[in-house]
Amino acid sequence: xxxxxxxxxxxxxxxxxxxxxxxxxxxxxxxxxxxxxxxxxxxxxxxxxxxxxxxxxxxxxxxxxxxxxxxxxxxxxxxxxxxxxxxxxxxxxxxxxxxxxxxxxxxxxxxxxxxxxxxxxxxxxxxxxxxxxxxxxxxxxxxxxxxxxxxxxxxxxxxxxxxxxxxxxxxxxxxxxxxxxxxxxxxxxxxxxxxxxxxxxxxxxxxxxxxxxxxxxxxxxxxxxxxxxxxxxxxxxxxxxxxxxxxxxxxxxxxxxxxxxxxxxxxxxxxxxxxxxxxxxxxxxxxxxxxxxxxxxxxxxxxxxxxxxxxxxxxxxxxxxxxxxxxxxxxxxxxxxxxxxxxxxxxxxxx
Length: 351
Hints:
Helix 1 links the parallel strand 1 and strand 2. This protein is α/β, with parallel strands linked by helices. It has a six-stranded mixed β-sheet with strand order 6-7-8-9-11-14, covered by helices on one side. Strands 1-2-3-4-5 form a five-stranded parallel β-sheet. The longest helix is centred in the middle third of the chain and has 16 residues, at 130-145. The protein is 38% helix and 16% strand. The chain contains 14 helices and 14 strands. The radius of gyration is 21 Å and the shape is globular.
């Protein structure tokens, strides 16, 4: 559904604002496109920005060329803007904004609850302290774990056996004042499951407790740094409340944030989900030229849950984070460098 700037200005409780839920509690229209090419008065733009910040749906601005200067002040209030020319970190420049809009609409309609919750979390946590923002992400993630969209994904995927245990899922060794930490489940592309998570947390705690460690270098063995959450463990927590506390108090995100100035992440291969959510907390992220990054969680009826709604927006902004997560498309290393998701692109040796 496309609306004008005037209609956007009247959204908050106005006649132009369709009900956010249908009679069954579903979200029938999770995404509204906002035409940024049309003229509007300064007063209308002010009202539109105010309405955008309180919107119940995802709001995607669309400009056929460059973002018009007259609406530049509105763009940050939207969830994302598509334009044919680069317009800063609140925009994604694409050759065909209309075609890209249709792709976003399809993704949002496929999993409307996850899509809308993602937008809500990104807005709500944008200016929160990191620890509080991680709690917001996890509470939303736990909510979606109990939702119909994730249940449908689990049913379509079918039952899967839990993986065999590995002797040393994470390797840690000291070299002078450096601690080298290596994810070590190459046969599973270092999937971020319980074993890897717990061993990584133990290694990071050593760095926090030892003032003699000036540098932490985080890498991965095998073909990929990390292929994301271990899918064989999805939905296996005893209950949603326990899942929340494990995710926030026993996860690696908070520790990486606290160690951030001392951490260098060296990534390669397919970095999916947690494979970029966790490294994004580091002060320095070095990516191999062949690295690709992807956030697939919305397609599962979820949102990023390893800290990605916190770490990634602090690098590239909430708008491009939404685009990356909603499309689920791979982002190659050069584009990640241009966006600021990584700091350097150079050959990275596994392990």
